[in-house]
Design brief:
Elements lengths: L2 H13 L4 H20 L8 H5 L4 E10 L5 E12 L5 E7 L5 H17 L6 E6 L8 H15 L8 E4 L6 H15 L20 H18 L9 E4 L4 H12 L3 E7 L2 E4 L6 H10 L4 H5 L6 E3 L11 E3 L9 H9 L4 E3 L8 H10 L2 E3 L1 H4 L2 H14 L6 H25 L6 H19 L4
Parallel strand pairs: 3-4, 3-5, 6-7, 6-10, 10-11, 11-12
Antiparallel strand pairs: 1-2, 2-4, 7-8, 8-9
Helix pairs in contact: 1-2, 2-4, 2-16, 4-16, 5-6, 7-8, 7-14, 7-15, 11-12, 14-15, 15-16
Bound molecules: NADPH dihydro-nicotinamide-adenine-dinucleotide phosphate (NDP) and (2Z)-2-iminopentanedioic acid.
């Protein structure tokens, strides 16, 4: 990194001790900015880099709640309002026991550039809690969500900050959160949350959007080589919202996803994933991947290793950060994998990314390839503001158009800065310059 950029990184590490994921996300962006700063030195003036790595506001709060047995628990809640240059803070809420301030800051930081890439009027933010929804009753999840929203409601609003789902937060949780917000504010602000139910302001295609968008991005990358997804074998990780709809879109485009996973292991189904069964197990029963295997002859559960051990043409990591490391990358490359598109946020380690880039395969960073979810959240906000509702085909067509635009912006920026085909540089440079230009226009704020 150039001196000016390296100094900013060192300051981030010194000021945010122990926040390894945040350091990792900042480093990846700053490294990409070398050629951008070299070409446009004014981006380093007026402490623009120093400002962009510092959240505008970060909120931490106590979340007390009572379980079904009457026991009181205390979780920690977070909302990091990172950057509002382009619009209200926008980004999901994650409920997972691993959540800490460094994880929320890495996600919020990535969200700034992802949201800029969508070309919609949304700033970057993220939130969540170390609450674990696994094994909790609906009533426990509801009481937790009500307590969480009791504090969060002071900080959000349709023109201020608009949360949505992420790991552990889906339609059920958004419902309980919205109900409590409405009660506290005595105001039906549909646009305060996205990922809502279809009967109360949700958008068609939002549920599918992240997974669909990831596959559409992979399709656009393949098109640059004159190829399609038809007949390609795919390894998917995760079995949640993103993974399920990545599998669905891949199947619609003639590909053959053969794996998925959760924290108990991964499933290999060489005949191709039975999507109806997977949805039944995960969306309806909230079960484990073993429940799929017990009902699907020919499928096997592997509890050691990763889906990346299975020979495939395309890998779609859709579970969590740092789930695909250098060893997994080497295995994928050895087996002939030629496309990696991230559905999750930061699932590939820096070493894995370096291996993919050195091998010259098609690799898409999550801030570009998983941006379809937040883009469709912005479409939900647009429908809420207009008190209208589009049909599925309209919403999906807009999502598809946005994914093509994001792909083309990445390709163009990578060419502009002298590294054609480098989607990491492309995504970071295109996202950064959009935000930076507006921050400059807004003065020192
Ligand atoms: P879900 O909660 O619906 O699913 C998450 C899946 O990943 C589950 O199968 C879960 O298994 C697995 N998983 C999560 N954490 C771990 C872990 N530490 N180790 C092993 N497996 C794990 O979340 P989403 O599908 O919404 O999110 C998946 C990824 O996509 C995340 O990185 C998220 O940030 C990203 N993303 C999500 C978007 C959205 O719209 N939902 C938009 C853009 C990105 P288990 O149940 O066993 O924990
Ligand atoms: O990481 C992400 O982009 C999300 N979890 C979706 C955020 C949103 O506001 O829809």
């Amino acid at each position: 990194m150039q001196d000016v950029v390296e100094k900013v990184y060192e300051q981030v590490v010194a000021r945010n001790r122990g926040e390894a994921e945040f350091h990792q996300a900042v480093r990846e962006v700053l490294e990409s900015l070398d050629p951008v700063i070299a070409k446009h030195p004014h981006y380093a003036d007026n402490a623009l880099l120093e400002r962009i790595v510092e959240p505008e506001r970060q909120i931490m709060f106590r979340v007390p709640w009572v379980d079904d047995a009457g026991q009181v628990h205390v979780n920690r809640g977070f909302r990091v309002e990172f950057n509002s240059a382009l619009g209200p803070y926008k980004g999901g809420l994650r409920f997972h026991p691993s959540v800490n301030v460094g994880i929320i800051k890495f996600l919020g930081f990535e969200q700034i550039f992802k949201n800029a890439l969508t070309n919609q009027a949304i700033g970057g933010g993220k939130g969540g809690s170390d609450f674990d929804p696994h094994g909790k009753s609906d009533a426990e999840v509801m009481r937790f969500c009500q307590s969480f929203m009791t504090e969060l409601s002071r900080h959000i609003g349709p023109n201020t900050d608009v949360p949505a789902g992420d790991i552990g937060v889906g339609g059920r949780e958004i419902g309980y959160l919205f109900g409590q917000y409405k009660r506290l504010r005595n105001s039906y602000d549909a646009g305060v949350l996205t990922g809502k139910g279809l009967a109360w302001g949700g958008s068609l295609a939002r549920t599918e959007a992240t997974g669909y968008g990831t596959v559409l991005f992979a399709q656009s990358m393949l098109a640059t080589k004159g190829e399609t997804l038809e007949g390609k074998k795919i390894a998917v990780s995760g079995a949640g919202n993103v993974a399920i709809y990545a599998i669905e879109k891949a199947q619609q485009l003639g590909a053959k996803p053969i794996t998925f996973s959760d924290s108990s292991g991964y499933v290999v189904d060489e005949a191709g994933v039975d999507l109806d069964l997977l949805k039944q197990v995960k969306e309806v029963e909230r079960g484990r991947v073993a429940d799929y295997v017990s009902r699907r002859p020919g499928a096997r559960l592997v509890t050691e290793g990763r889906p990346w051990d299975v020979p495939v043409d395309v890998a779609l990591p859709c579970a969590t950060q740092n789930e695909l490391d250098a060893d997994s990358a080497a295995t994928l490359l050895r087996n002939g994998c030629a496309v990696v598109a991230e559905g999750a946020n930061m699932p590939c380690t820096p070493e894995a990314i370096a291996a993919f880039q050195a091998a010259g395969i098609l690799y898409a960073p999550g801030k570009a390839s998983n941006a379809g979810g937040v883009a469709t959240s912005a479409l939900e906000m647009e429908q809420n503001a207009g008190r209208t509702r589009w049909d599925f085909a309209t919403a999906e067509a807009k999502l598809a158009g946005i994914m093509v635009d994001i792909h083309d912006s990445c390709v163009e920026a990578a060419e502009t800065y002298g590294r054609p085909g480098d989607y990491v540089l492309g995504a970071n440079a295109a996202g950064f310059t959009r935000v930076a230009d507006v921050m400059i226009a807004h003065g020192i704020v």
